Amino acid sequence: MTESDSETTAIEAAAFRRLLQHLMHERPDVQNIDLMILAGFCRNCLSDWYRDAAEARGITMTRDEAREAVYGMPFAQWKAQHQKDATPEQLAAFAAVQKPPSES
After folding, report:
1. 3-state DSSP call for residue 92?
2. What is the CATH number of domain 5-95?
3. Nearest to 48, CA basis, from 25, 64, 36, 32
4. 61 Rama class: left (phi>0) / alpha (psi -120 to 50) / beta
5. 57-102: per-residue pLDDT in tens?
6. Burial of 7 (0-12, 13-18, 19+ CB in 10 A)
7. Dihedral sign (CA 96, 100, 103, 104)
């Protein structure tokens, strides 16, 4: 099956919107540090990529605007409602995955 560029873009956009909905509404309990440990990216990464994509299309966007697009609310509000302090175990796991492979 061959898809046109516009169909591919529409499918990718729908998948991205579904990911955002999942992270915002279905799994707000999953902490960003856990996403970073397991997947190597988090909601903040997504917001940076979102802003980069906007700017590549000539659309100026602040970091706060991009985060609100990804979090579904102002970042400060998200943090107050959902973000917990990282545990010592999470910090250790995060540090472990930050080491280059040659140091493992």
Report:
1. helix
2. 1.10.3340.10
3. 64
4. beta
5. 999 999 999 999 999 999 999 999 999 999 999 999 999 998 766 6
6. exposed
7. positive
**CA 84 to CA 68: how far, in whole Å?**
19
26: number of Cβ within 10 Å: 10
Summarised one tens digit per residue, pLDDT across range 4-34 is 889 999 999 999 999 999 999 999 999 999 9
In the chain, domain spans? 5-95
Secondary structure element (H or E) that encloses residue 17, with its range? helix 5-21
The whole-angstrom separation of Cα 104 and Cα 93 is 13
Q: How many CB atoms lie within 10 A of CB 51?
A: 21
Question: What length is written for the chain?
Answer: 104
